[in-house]
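Hi, here's the filled form for the chain we discussed.

Project: internal
Contact: R.S.
Residues: 588
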Amino acid sequence: MELSKKLKSQIALLPNKPGVYQMKDAEDKIIYVGKAKNLKNRVSQYFLRPQSGKVFAMVTHVDHFDFIIVHSEKEAFILEMNLIQTHYPRYNIMLMDDSHYPYIALRRKDAFLKIARRADDKKYYYFGPFPNSSDAYKTIDLINSLYPTRKCKTLGKKICLYYHLGQCLGPCEKDIPEETYKDLYESIKSLLEGNIEPIRKELKEKMLKASEEMRYEDAAYYKNSIDSLERTVAKQSVEASTDKTNRDVFAYATRDSYLGLSILTIRGGRLLGKKNIVVQCFGEPHEQATELIEEYYQNNDLPSEIVCNINGFAEDFLPIYPDTKIVSPKEGRLFELLDMASLNARQGLDAHFMSARLEDDNEALLEELGKTLNIKTPYRIELFDNSHLQGSSPVGAMVCYINGEPAKGMYRKYHLDEENAGDDYHSMVEVVTRRYKRLKEENLSYPDLILTDGGLTQVHATLEALSAIEVDIPVYGLYKNDKHQTEGIIDKDGNTYPLNVTSPLFFLLMRMQDEVHRFAISFHKAERSKKMKQSVFDDVKGLGEKRKEILRKNYPTIDSLKNASLSELEQLLPHDVATSLIEKLKTL
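And the returned structure, exactly as it came back:
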């Protein structure tokens, strides 16, 4: 975009100091608030670098900006949050809502249970927080069924059904000894901390006795209680470490203008659950991930320890929370948790792309696609993907979509000529030739559109194959920007059709792209397990078998690995190893 004189003059006056900036529209309304360690570097990059998606949309509405210089990063953070919460700028990324993760609160004096959003009342013992609130409610329901806990917030005047079922001590009528409540409190607290054996043993004995006495309904009740106990409490007892440290684990992943942040919540040394957040990319990914974590702790309590390998995180975070311990593991159990978070971040992104906008009218979207490309409505679309690993086990795959839905009976797999392994252009020529030569020979119908996933090069390869067998089908490619994010569609002449990354059509095409990748990868994995004897990682110094396996889990294809940034790889590898791997990938 062409900068106005007003913006050019303001950019020239930006200082090299920390502060908070406010982007404003022509009506002087604040549309975005951000903080920066260096105002000149941070603000100028919005206008002097190519932008896309949400950033581009925001920048096009900026008429002018203001800034406030501060003394420290902590001051910048506090001021930024205050301004956001005061003005609610439309382009600010907020992590979720302003609610807190729930805790189970157990009152010490009478073992009363409730859900709490803050762990700040000394009268209670708190267990949590739970990333998934339904787990907290299920656990309370289970404990209330297993123990004679008080069920009423306000005591009634007479005993109720719970007392007659043996699930309440009846404090509304009876004077309960303090020692009884103390024992009940300790039993429930022990259960929440993962010691389920005593209650499981007791329930099993009752189940067996009821069965022997042919009280089968009671036996079934005890059996269901045991199952519920294992589902809701035992599953939370996954050992996270040998200690009992409260910690959160963070990792992020990116794809096609979106960022996924995964949070693993560990309390008392046990994994309580995970949360995946997906937002549109807004600036440098590692900086955005740090900002999202900072926002997260505006509404959630800090644990004793934060585990992450996000580039620059400690440098940005510690000035704000100086008492927090930040751990960046390179091996061991904590690194395994980091790997788990990374896998969850990637899976969260994939799930977002596969499930987003499923309610949209596919037929209308296909009509929109046809009009955009100036072709007839492409009710049948075929997509190709090829996969190999350093020239080994080359395969090709084709998926077919009809009316915007996968037609799995028409999917095809291809073993490719070893001579073409590693040569994406001629691999595409081979697979397209084989596909449409057969359709022509058998007098079968052609698709309305072929979409390739390699930009102009793959479009030309496809057209070369079609020309050789004298078949005419419209061919377009999905092209990526310099950040390896899918940006739009390209035709044979290099004309581009940018896509709005928040549009329904974008998500429909991404689902198709994901499906052909998935199909090709699953086929290649099966072939690789039979023949794979060498790896692209073998001559990268510092990559042992364990690190190779971690990379294979997180990046199942060479393309996905090539698309990873250095800062993203550094979450899983030491800097020098990640750098060597990046250099090796550039040669492929």
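Let me know if anything looks off before we file it.
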